[in-house]
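REQUEST ID: PR-0412
SUBMITTED BY: lab tech R.K.
PRIORITY: routine
TASK: structure prediction, single protein chain
INPUT:
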Amino acid sequence: MSRDLLVHKLDCIDEAAQNALEHMNALQERIRARARDLYLERGGTEGNPVDDWLRAEREVAWAPPEELQETDRAIHIRVSELPDATIDVTVLPERIILKGIWAEGFDSKVLCRQIVLPSQIHAESAVIRLDADFLTVSAAKVEPA
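STATUS: complete
OUTPUT:
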């Protein structure tokens, strides 16, 4: 499989972005259910719920590490450890939505990640690059009124 990038820059949530958000909610519910199953598999004994969540997330979804940096004028995001896949990036003023499916043999994982931004950005200013095994998104911030 090759690595491809699909980019959508939107001023507001359209139907496709709304569908992506609904898909993310469903995926979160699958992760929540798997984390609950892990707890029950231990017989309901004490454990670390964060560890259960992270393990469930690794089993159900593809959760690459991300870094976010904010300057006075821009927001920069770097998502690393991306395998070969088509990645769909939707840029909105208040969030970035990443979607993709990665298949390895008979196993597949879903990337459905929402990065809520600390400040609003101009979506149309976003520069998105896919290099080696990381994705970068940089965009100008909206000036405060």
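NOTES: The mean pLDDT is 87.
REVIEWED BY: pending
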